[in-house]
Amino acid sequence: MSTDAPNPATAPIGGVVPPLVTPLTPGYDVDTGSLARLVAHQLDAGVSGVFVLGTSGEGTFLTDEQRRTVLSVVVAEVAGAVPVLAGAIDTSTARSAEHVTAAVKAGADGIVCTAPFYAATHPAEIDRHFERLASYAGGLPLYAYDIPPRVGTKLPDDLLLDLGRRGVLAGVKDSSGEDTSLRRLVLARRDAGLPGFAVMTGSETTVDAALAFGVDGAVPGLGNVDPAGYVRIAAAVAAGDLAAARAEQDRLFRLFDIITVPDRNRMGASSAALGAFKAALYVLGVLDCPLTAFPSVPLDEAEIAGVRALVVRAGLEPVA
C-alpha cells in the first residue's frame, strides 16, 4: 500500500459535514444501533465529515458517559473514512477542557467549541479560553462554534482570524444566521491571507449562496435527514452549475418546513426543530425512536404524520 495516499481524516475540513442528532431509546439511553445506521446514512450519501455532540446532537443535554458512548460508536462506525468532529461544548473552560480530553482519547479528528457561556465574557477572555482548549487538543484542529443565540456573544472576525493566524483555531462554524457577517468574514479571511482557515456555514437554507461566495462547506442540521441533497449542492457549486445548486437548495428549503409542523404552543424551538429532524429519520427507518432529550417535549403522532407528509413531498421514501 502506498504511504502517499491521502488520509481523509486529516484533510482540511470542508464540504458537507452534518451535525448528527443523538438517537435515544424510550428510556433516554443512547440508541447505539440507530446511531450506527445514522452514520451509514451519512457515509452512503458521500458526506465529507460528521460532527457529533453539537446543538443538533443535544450534547449539552447528555451525561459525560453518554457523550463518550456517542463518540465511541461514531468513531468506530466511521472507521477513518471521513473526519469526525467532536463538540466539547460547556459553560466554562475547565469543563470544556475535560470534554476535549475525552474526545482526543476517543479518536476524534477535530474539536469544536463555543465561547464560554452563562457568565458574560470579554474578547480577551474568549481568546484565553480557546488558547487553553487548544493546549488540551493534542495537536488536533480546534474549530470555533459561533452561535450567538445560545452563547450570548458574537465572535468578532478580528479575534477569530488572529487566533487562526496564531495557530490556535483551524476555522469556524458560523451558526449566527447572519449571512452578511458571514460574507464579511470570508472577505476578511482573504484579506488576511489565511486560506487554510476553514469557514463553514451552519445554515440549512442558504448553502448554495454561501458556497458560491466562498465558504468552505456546510454543517446543516437538515443534513441528518437528506445528506445527499447537500452533497449535490456542493458538487453543483464546485462544477459552476449554480442553477442546479439553486434547484436542489429550493427543494431542501421546502423540506426544512418540517420544523414548522410541531405545535410551538406546547414546546420550544429546540424541541420542535430537533424533534422534526428525528421524526423524519424515524419515518425513513434510520432511527427506531424519535425521542428528544429530556426535558424536551416529544412530537405526537399527528405531528410525526405531518413530518412524514413533507418528507414524501421532498421526494424521499419513508419505510412502509
TrEMBL record:
Binding-site residues for pyruvate, renumbered to this chain: 219
GO biological process: small molecule metabolic process
Cited Gene3D superfamilies: Aldolase class I (3.20.20.70)
One family name in Pfam for this protein: DHDPS
Record flagged with keyword Transmembrane helix: no
InterPro entries: Aldolase_TIM, DapA-like, Schiff_base-form_aldolases_AS
Keywords: Lyase, Schiff base
Domain of life of the source: Bacteria
Catalytic center residues: 145 (proton donor/acceptor), 173 (schiff-base intermediate with substrate)
Keyword Lyase: yes
Sample GO molecular function, one term: 4-hydroxy-tetrahydrodipicolinate synthase activity
SMART domains given in the database record: DHDPS
Family annotation (PANTHER family): 4-HYDROXY-2-OXOGLUTARATE ALDOLASE, MITOCHONDRIAL (PTHR12128:SF66), DIHYDRODIPICOLINATE SYNTHASE (PTHR12128)
Similarity comment: Belongs to the DapA family.
Protein name per the record: Dihydrodipicolinate synthase family protein
Source organism: Actinocatenispora rupis
